[in-house]
Design goal:
The chain has about 140 residues and is an all-alpha fold. Helix content is about 80%, strand content about 0%. The radius of gyration is 16 Å and the shape is globular. The two termini are about 20 Å apart.
């Protein structure tokens, strides 16, 4: 295997995954009422509390993944979060016919993201990370 891919692949992967979560969380800060309203529209209780938790996960936990600090735990938390979001917000099997395709695409994209996160959880953050530095690999 190309050592450049082994060295830089995990870093690039973490950056690309974080690019999904961090801007979404920052957007929820900017439109907190809209985020809470969207959560409420799914019938979930305590939408404001869930919006805060969502922001903490999308910004804080994804930030930890980005820098590679406790990356295995961060990836597991994000994987669980993403799976739950897929089941609640992209339930294509229960969507109106005109929304089935889009919800199906979003659902399976979320599953693919979960797969990538599980790969990070299994293999770690790579050498260019806080975890790698602490382990003496960076």
């Amino acid at each position: 295997m190309n050592t450049s891919v082994e060295r830089f692949g995990p870093l690039l992967g973490r950056v690309l995954i974080a690019l999904l979560f961090i801007p979404a969380g920052l957007g929820k800060i900017g439109d907190f009422q809209g985020a809470a309203g969207y959560i409420a529209s799914a019938g979930l209780p305590l939408p404001a509390v869930l919006a805060v938790i969502t922001i903490l996960i999308e910004v804080g936990v994804a930030g930890a993944l980005l820098v590679g600090w406790q990356a295995r735990w961060a990836a597991l938390i994000l994987a669980l979060f993403t799976l739950v979001a897929a089941l609640i917000f992209h339930a294509f099997w229960a969507s109106p016919p005109d929304q089935k395709m889009m919800q199906s695409i979003n659902f399976f994209k979320n599953l693919a993201i979960v797969g990538g996160l599980l790969f990070v959880a299994a293999h770690g953050a790579g050498p260019y990370s806080v975890d790698g530095k602490l382990a003496g690999r960076g």
